[in-house]
Amino acid sequence: MREAAPGDEGTGSSGPETDGRRRRGQERRRILIDAALSVIGRDGLSAATQRSVAAEAGVPPSAVYYYFATLDDLVAASLVEVNERFIAQLDGVDTTGENPLRALAVVTVEAARPTRIEGTAELELWMLAARDERLRGEIDRYNDSLHATAARFSDDPTAVAAIAAALTGYYWQVATSDRFDAEQLEAILRHIVR
Questions:
Q1: Which of 1, 53, 63, 64 is buried most, with the most CB atoms less than 10 Å from its CB?
Q2: What is the CATH number of domain 1-69?
Q3: SS (H, E, C) 90-108
Q4: What is the mean pLDDT of the chain?
């Protein structure tokens, strides 16, 4: 049985009042996750404290622990959110269109470049996940999604591995430099699948 989440309280009905509370709770969680990503990207993972995240979000410090049992839970939720966004974008790539490799390149570059602060936050979260077994599942989920996406473009296992490696490498290069673009990634992908 799932524990009640903040915003689930009420009379037990699923009427508008309960739905409104749930929606507000989800919005507050989103605000806190976005604030955590901003703090981590700008100041580093060690700077993500209850107070710094709350200040960034414009909420009282107690809100952090109301919506997340621990700061580690907030950081983990931030990593899950980053993964969810990229995986959803990969899943949405149209492989039936006129230029599916171009579509994949554009999605990868756009996903990696929301802002420099977000890109840096994602790198910090990835490094944390690489060291923390509790977060390892998110790395595995990311890798599985990349390989599933790559398999939509080739049935050659070596090409699939190369596409996944190219997307990961390019994603991180774009997040840390302005020298990379979708045209260059498309050319790399074409070279792999030719």
A1: 53
A2: 1.10.10.60
A3: HHCCCCCCCCHHHHHHHHH
A4: 87
